[in-house]
Amino acid sequence: QVRLVESGGGLVQAGGSLRLSCAASGRTFGINAMGWFCQAPGKQREFVAAITLSGGSTTYTDSVKGRFTISRDNAKNTVYLQMNSLKPEDTAVYYCAATRNSDVTDYYGMDYWGTGTLVTVSS
Fold first, then answer.
1. How many Cβ atoms are within 10 Å of 48's Cβ, its own excluded?
2. SS3 per residue for 46-115
3. Mean pLDDT of each 10-residue bin along the chain, 123 residues long
4. How far is the C-alpha of 19 from the C-alpha of 28, rounded, in Å?
5. What is the chain's alpha carbon radius of gyration, rounded to the nearest angstrom?
6. C-beta separation of 111 from 100 below 8 A
7. What sign has the CA pseudo-torsion 111, 4, 48, 118?
8. Is residue 81 a contact partner of residue 69, using CB atoms and an 8 Å limit?
């Protein structure tokens, strides 16, 4: 099993920044990619960003391109999401996920999930 633990959420004003962290532990061998999904109240969980652990290839949803940056530290088994120029519509619970599959954006393809961290952006 793989355990994912998120941290770094909180309350920030619009235009501000936050950095989320996701630390993986356990049987991480074979994990292809890790990423972030978000779920706003009353909405479905949506893909935000992902990074492959071997090559560092990144993928973003259109709404965060240019504002969010995903990165990894393989030595620490940790993935980060730097969130800049935050908007009220970014308010959501952010979940870390990991997959052994090649499709890093597919909610149903994620093998492991964290419990989430709340990001609230005030206007």
1. 25
2. EEEEEEECCCCCEEECHHHCCCEEEEEEHHHCEEEEEECCCCHHHCEEEEEEEECCCCCCCHHHCCEECC
3. 96 98 94 96 96 93 98 95 98 97 89 97 96
4. 23
5. 13
6. yes
7. positive
8. yes
